[in-house]
Amino acid sequence: MTTAAKSGTDTELIAHLLRRAGFGATWEELQAAGDLGYQGTLDLLFNPGDPESMPSDIIRRYHPDQSITQIAPSSGSVWMYRMSTTKTPFEEKIALFWHRIFATGQTKLIQGKVMLTQIEMFRQFGLGSFRDLLVQLSQNPAMILWLDNQDNHKDNINENYGREILELFAMGVGNYSEEDIKECSRAFTGWTIANMPYMSIRMRNNTLRPYGYVAWQYKFDPEDHDEGEKTFLGETGNFNGDDIIDIICKNPATARFIARHLYHHFIADELPVPQWPFEGPKDPEAIELMVDAYFANDYSIGAMLRAVFESEMFKSEATQYARIKSPVELVVGTLRLAGGFDWPTADIFKATAACGFMGQALLAPVSVEGWMGGDDWISTGSMVQRINFASATVGDPTKKGIKSILDQISDRHPRGLVAPKALVDDCLELVGSLRLENETKEGIVTYATEQGDIDPRTNDGVDKIVSVLQLIVSTREYQLV
Fold it and tell me: Whole-prediction pTM value?
């Protein structure tokens, strides 16, 4: 199919979908998606194949620290390789979504193996039943230690996990009582870790083997479980953790809370989460659409998102460019635009560090509340970091993604010189069908005009085209998704 046949609103709509359900798409990826059409692309997202990301044995051969994962930058870089090279980015976007909500930090857990196991759990269960996901979360060693459930005993309850599963993970403030927190915590007594690590750093480091830390495992200890009758959210019985999760998941407040998080992450920036008990959702109809899908499909997160992606609301222009990219979305999207990584490189650490400089250090959330997102992503300092990273990444014409863009422009203009407006149009199309405000686009066209003759076959022409690409990724619109 020719470029002309794929241009226009259909391509822009697919590009919008791939920005939300991934990290954006290269022109080649958009061409392939255009052959499938919007519905076909959506079907493929929910039925992905092999991720074909960089093999872990290759990574560890060149980065031994990413086998041991003793420090957070190493663990984060393992995930950065996966996000920037995978053929199934929707899986990583879902994992990033749950990491943002079920915020767990390596800073407390010391080792990264358990963190990366949690991320893999998000990939596996993140689009399925919310009930199954909550069970997996409650049995996840990283979460158990993060919220101290190994210290939650039948004779001495620890309320950390019981409180957070209600307040931050599933229901939101105002939908439960302090007594519900206590009863919930009682139900999760005995949910602990089999190979419990010593709590001193010196002794915990003794769990380090020649090729990494041992993998901690979940264990249910019936001797430490409170078998007494409990009253939770108006129901009474000899509840265990599974029963509590059943009661949580069937509550309408849970469906609305999760729907609002999905809206915030996949549709448009919402108010900060602490304001939700006092302010209604930005789009109540969108929330109800997802709530209906939740209850009609056994609490399925995938069904909630599919309902949104198929809706006219999602396809409307008002929904496009309605979210500020998180630092990880910006970094990964730019890396993928430039071609990702073909081989292990020290640049992976720069990319991982850049996320932290912008305010979203992988595997190191600022608190148990995770990241608020929205306007919180933007400050004077973070904006400088965002522009500098994007500009430096696309400013290298030897990267395969940038070289592909340069080759495309050269092929489109076989007679040599490229008119300034045509160049800008080509660049916007080739970076993923990006749409700029008229004033912004006119400014870039003016800049391109001032560069004089642009011949993509010359080194001078390449430099000028790259400078236009750098301007494009420095725009306000590129910061949005």
Answer: 0.93
